[in-house]
Every structure is written in structure tokens, then in C-alpha cells.
Specification:
alpha+beta; Alpha-Beta Plaits; 2 domains; two-stranded antiparallel ribbon; about 35% helix
């Protein structure tokens, strides 16, 4: 399953809940800073970078980060092994092996790994692997106050999908009944009309 983590959960984005506040970006940068503090991070050089980005697409805010693909294209194309699948199920990056060739950035279907010219390296989401090892959630999930970012089990995702499909079906049936009722009212009103 795409996005598997130490906890056996998947990072889920609900674009209908994202308000574009970018708290997830700030929390991610701070979590990947040396100081692990917002006030300390602003004085670090190079500045810590977020591994998650919120993009504006039409009328939606879309938080986007690494999906930790099963068969990760970035891992397959990396000539040095800097991109690798860890035994914890995450796709991770070893900066000591990275030569900044950008092949992983090109190979990724969502162009997630980003080349940072300041660092001359690629940076990517590690799903806050150290936080997961401590039993904590990723920083972006903790920072998201609207619930747009959540960690869910694959079973919970399947249940949520089934529920949303059923809700749509029920709504469709209700709309069809309502339309049929309106149509019947219109037909009844025409029956009383004399068409001479």
C-alpha cells in the first residue's frame, strides 16, 4: 500500500478541509531543523526547508508530499542509492550519498523530491520517521488543525471509501425520488387542464 509507515498507517490528504494556512509547512521545516524550535529555526543557516508543500489548484488547497510508493520510481533511478526503501516501509533519502543529479525529481510522478540549490541536494518527506519511532505523529499531521492531514490505517481508508460511495448512492436515490415526485406533481397538474 502506498504511503505505509512504521505505524502501518497512510498519510491522507482531504482537500475539502485544507484552508491553505501552511501550518504543515512550518511544522515540517521546524521538525527538520537543528534546533527543533520555531524561534531557533529562523536563525539557522541554511534555513530548514519543508518537505510538504501546499499548492493552490483551482479552488482547492492541495497539501502534497511523498507518497512512499511501493515500487518507488525515485529509488529505481537513483544512481548512488541515496534514495532507498527502508526496512520500516518508507522511502528515505541519504544526503551523504546524494550527488544532486535530480533524476529522482524527474522520475517522481508528483515531482516531490525537490532540488535545493542552497544545499545542492534533494530534500524529501521522511514522514518524520524519528517522530514515528517515538510513537508520535508526523509534524504536519500534528500541526493541521482542520483535519486535512491525517494518518489512517488501510482498513479505515477502505471503510471511509465505502461510506462515501454509499452516501453518494443514497443521495442520488433521494434526488431521483425528489425529481420523480416533482414530475408526478407536474403531470397531475396537467391532467386537470383542458386541451381544447
Amino acid at each position: 500500500m502506498s504511503g505505509q509507515s512504521l505505524s502501518g498507517k497512510v498519510l491522507v490528504f482531504d482537500v475539502s478541509r485544507c484552508i491553505g494556512c501552511r501550518h504543515c509547512e512550518i511544522a515540517c521545516a521546524v521538525a527538520h531543523s537543528s534546533s527543533k524550535s520555531l524561534f531557533g529555526a529562523v536563525y539557522e543557516w541554511p534555513r530548514p526547508k519543508p518537505r510538504i508543500r501546499v499548492y493552490r489548484v483551482e479552488s482547492y488547497n492541495v497539501p502534497l508530499t511523498c507518497r512512499h510508493c511501493e515500487d518507488a520510481p525515485c529509488v529505481r533511478v537513483c544512481p548512488t542509492g541515496a534514495m532507498y526503501r527502508a526496512n520500516v516501509g518508507l522511502v528515505l533519502h541519504n544526503p551523504a550519498k546524494c550527488i544532486g543529479c535530480k533524476l529522482c525529481e524527474v522520475a517522481c510522478p508528483i515531482a516531490h523530491p525537490r532540488y535545493d540549490p542552497e544545499l545542492r541536494l534533494l530534500i524529501k518527506c521522511d514522514l518524520c520517521v524519528e517522530r514515528l519511532r517515538q510513537g508520535l505523529r508526523p509534524a504536519c499531521v500534528d500541526a493541521c488543525k482542520t483535519g486535512a492531514l491525517r494518518l489512517e490505517t488501510p482498513d479505515k481508508l477502505a471503510q471511509m471509501k465505502a461510506e462515501s460511495i454509499l452516501e453518494a448512492l443514497i443521495k442520488g436515490v433521494e434526488i431521483a425520488r425528489e425529481r420523480k415526485s416533482i414530475l408526478n406533481m407536474m403531470l397531475e397538474s396537467y391532467r386537470t387542464v383542458s386541451w381544447i
